[in-house]
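Q: Please design a sequence for this.
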């Protein structure tokens, strides 16, 4: 599920990122402790880079400044 990152799995805090989650009584929690292999880590890092760039471009449209 796409949720705000809290830094889990090395994902930059504050990004909206797809994590494995559990939902209980209307609240979600990121599943912790899953092992990430090299292939998956490379894909996660590439996705994170894209999301950071997209977030920067979105803010630049609002604020007129590009952040990376």
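A: Design:
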């Amino acid at each position: 599920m796409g949720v705000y990152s809290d830094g889990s799995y090395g994902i930059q805090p504050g990004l909206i990122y797809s994590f494995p989650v559990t939902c209980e009584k209307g609240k979600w929690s990121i599943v912790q402790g899953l092992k990430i292999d090299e292939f998956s880590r490379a894909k996660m890092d590439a996705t994170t880079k894209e999301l950071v760039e997209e977030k920067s471009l979105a803010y630049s449209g609002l604020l007129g400044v590009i952040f990376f």
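Q: Thanks. Anything notable?
A: The chain has one domain: 2-63. The beta strands are 2-4, 16-18, 21-24, 27-30.
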